[in-house]
Amino acid sequence: MIIAVDGPSASGKGSVSRRIAAQLGLPYLDTGLLYRAVARDMLDQGLPLDDEDAAVRAAKSLDLDGLDDPRLRERRMGEAASRVAASPAVREALLELQRDFAHRPGGAVLDGRDIGTVVCPGADVKLYITASAEERAHRRYLELRDRGEHVDEDEIYQDILKRDHRDQERSAAPLRKADDAHLLDTTNLDIEQAFKAALGLINAAR
Ligand code: C5P
Q: What ipTM, to 2 d.p.?
């Protein structure tokens, strides 16, 4: 069973997806980490983020074992990831890896921006998880602060708006809800409530 979860940053999709995967005994891939890893490799080599050939090379040499690097969660990596993710060639270079993961025997849970629309259009269940920009900024602020980053909540809010805009307006695989995705708005839900709501939608759909 393939479960595709999409939505904007800090919507709760990562926490919900991780818990769904654990509950159903399925492997889980946070595809945002792939774009973050490409960005990290570029920054580490001092390459400009718009050097598409270098970004494609970084994408092609990615391996899933390196995705537990805590640096990938830093605020600047999210911002840099959304820049490299605007390149159709970079997206294409990461497609096979994601599809191979999705088609593991037994299935998988993948979350990102284009899982239900591009990576796994035939997924068994699709969720589109969102929340207000203010609530998402607040969550991201708390998360980064807990991780020891010095951040200003209003700056995070501006980041979120900028990232939403870039992800939704790009021509390659823009963030949008697949027509057959179930919408889950987590603005007024805590993580436990969001998880239960998602599980209910999945159980009803399969
Ligand atoms: O989800 P996360 O914030 O880690 O993603 C970082 C960036 O990677 C997003 O802003 C988006 O531009 C890009 N991304 C994407 N497609 C995905 C996952 C992430 O374009 N499937």
A: 0.98
Residue 188 lies in a domain: yes
**Do 137 and 177 share a domain, yes or no?**
yes
Q: Domain total for the chain?
A: 2
Ligand 1 contacts CB of residue 114 (under 6 A) = yes
CA distances to 26, 42, 73, 86, 196 from 77, in Å: 27, 11, 7, 14, 30
> Whose CA is closest to atom 14 on ligand 1?
32
User: Mind listing the pLDDT tens digit for each residue in 81-122?
Assistant: 999 999 999 999 999 999 999 999 999 999 999 999 999 999
In a domain, 88, yes or no: yes
- DSSP H/E element including 44: helix 32-44
User: Is the model's pTM score more than 0.90?
Assistant: yes
